[in-house]
TrEMBL record:
Pfam family, any one: MFS_1
Residues of the signal peptide: none
Coiled coil: none
Listed PANTHER family: MAJOR FACILITATOR SUPERFAMILY, MAJOR FACILITATOR SUPERFAMILY (MFS) PROFILE DOMAIN-CONTAINING PROTEIN-RELATED
Record localization: Membrane
Molecular function GO labels: transmembrane transporter activity
PROSITE patterns: MFS
Membrane-traversing stretches: 24-49, 61-81, 87-108, 153-175, 181-201, 266-283, 295-316, 337-356, 362-384, 396-418, 430-451
Protein name: Major facilitator superfamily domain-containing protein
Its membrane topology: Multi-pass membrane protein
Cellular component terms per the entry's GO annotation: membrane
Protein transport keyword on record: no
Residue span, Major facilitator superfamily (MFS) profile domain: 26-454
């Protein structure tokens, strides 16, 4: 037998059999990467007027584009990085891409023109997209299905907490130093995480681990026939590269599961950036707060995300385990769906409270409570949807999450561009009422389709796990 595989079900090299400590090191480091790059995406929000003035930015649209173009690159990057990780492993691709982010994010701080800023922001976004492209794959590699809830909750929290925390630091850096330090402080933090990852982050992708094992055994035994089940000697390097690079595009356009969860998360993610873009308009113009003080209101989103994490994270695994017993089934991805239904009430309710209290200029705590409720519902939605995709596409989890992330980040890129126009045209009350109404429909229809027909849809897919 020339096939190289694991040394039994308890092989310690199999990431599923790693100690919980080692699994958590991988999860936390990837979550730190996933936290830092979104911080960079929104940390600019309080500094946009100063940046526009210093860089002679010609229009308001171009000013918001300096913030949003990062997310445009975020949408494109996973289509290259995710399949590369399924060829060369998660760690090498993650660390190489992060170096691209680190270099160009630092260079952003030296920009002298709007064009330079746009180009450097786009390039830093390409590198910064790696954690969102590969993180789902790392979780799938390390954690068994019944263990993924809490890990996914922490990982899912990172891209939300980053945009909520970023403007707070950005507001004070802008007020007491200057906007260029926003980029340099982020780069300093990212450099620390990069060093820790080089020291402690181990490869998690099973085909890569087994490939290294087979290569070592071939050298030791002089048996050139040794191979893994994932090896494709019938294909050249260019054929493998082409196959892997086109997979996320094919999955995006052929997999209803990815399309549905992608559109579901795209609207909700866009809403988050809508709210983020509305904060300067609300707190600085309507409540007349200075940038530093106004940025503190972003704490409400962070509080909502953290509460949502601690409430829903363990609950996802408990519901999954109880449904396995109830249906006498070893477990299927659809067991992640039931917790998505409450968000059809929680998320729109928070959005409405935020909009109505802002419209009537109630005490500042009321819009913040609404924003926190909105954030709590949002994180629950994303945890369930993220875990559903990871469970459905285990081997191709990176390509699947990368493809789904394309729709999400395109919404994050585009929504802030028209947020000020919508609120000025409709006001906070009517504007948020429209957005909340759409959210109710999206949060009910999407989960219902997945719960009712998800298993049948997956059965027809060549990419879904058995």
């Amino acid at each position: 037998m020339n096939q190289v595989t694991w040394d039994g079900p308890d092989d310690p090299e199999n990431p599923h059999n790693w100690s919980r400590g080692k699994k958590w090191v991988s999860t936390i480091l990837v979550s730190c990467f996933t936290f830092i790059s979104p911080v960079s995406s929104t940390m600019l929000a309080p500094a946009l007027p100063d940046m526009a003035n210093d860089l002679n930015t010609p229009s308001g649209f171009m000013t918001y584009l300096m913030m949003s173009i990062f997310l445009l690159a975020y949408a494109i990057g996973p289509f290259v990085l995710a399949p590369l990780s399924e060829m060369y492993g998660r760690v090498v691709v993650l660390q190489a891409a992060n170096m691209i982010f680190l270099i160009f994010n630092t260079v952003c701080g030296f920009s002298r023109t709007t064009t330079q800023m746009l180009v450097f922001r786009f390039l830093s976004g390409l590198g910064g997209s790696a954690p969102q492209a590969l993180g789902g794959g790392v979780l799938s590699d390390c954690w068994k299905k019944e263990e993924r809830g809490v890990a996914t909750a922490i990982y899912s929290l990172a891209p939300f907490l980053g945009p909520a925390v970023g403007p707070i630091a950005g507001g004070y850096l802008t007020q007491y130093m200057n906007w260029r330090w926003i980029f340099w402080v982020v780069s300093m933090a990212d450099a620390v995480v990069q060093i820790l990852a080089v020291l402690f982050l181990s490869e998690t992708y099973a085909p890569k681990i087994l490939h290294v094992k087979a290569k070592s055994l071939r050298k030791i035994t002089n048996n050139s026939s040794l191979h893994t089940e994932y090896d494709r000697p019938d294909r050249t390097f260019l054929q493998l590269l082409g196959k892997n690079l086109t997979r996320p595009f094919i999955m995006l356009f052929t997999q209803p599961t990815i399309q549905l969860t992608g559109l579901y998360r795209a609207y909700l993610y866009g809403l988050m950036y809508f709210v983020l873009a509305s904060f300067p308009l609300l707190w600085e113009e309507q409540y007349n707060q200075e940038p530093g003080r106004a940025s503190l209101n972003y704490i409400s989103l962070g509080v909502g995300f953290v509460i949502g994490l601690f409430v829903s994270g363990p609950m996802i695994d408990k519901v999954y385990a109880s449904l396995k017993i109830r249906y006498n089934h070893p477990g299927r991805p659809e067991f992640r769906i039931p917790l998505m239904f409450p968000t059809a009430l929680v998320t729109p309710a928070g959005l409405l409270l935020y909009g109505l209290s802002a419209h009537f200029r109630l005490h500042w705590i009321v819009p913040n409570v609404g924003a926190a409720i909105f954030a709590g519902g949002l994180i629950l939605s994303f945890q369930c949807a993220q875990t559903y995709v990871v469970d459905s596409y285990e081997r191709y989890a990176a390509s699947a999450t990368g493809a789904a992330a394309f729709l999400r980040t395109m919404a994050g890129f585009s929504f802030p561009l028209f947020a000020p126009s919508l609120y000025r045209a409709l006001g906070f009350a009517y504007g948020n009422a429209v957005l909340a109404g759409i959210a109710v429909v999206v949060c009910l229809v999407g989960p219902f389709i997945l719960w009712r027909w998800g298993e049948a849809i997956r059965a027809r897919s060549q990419y879904c796990a058995n």
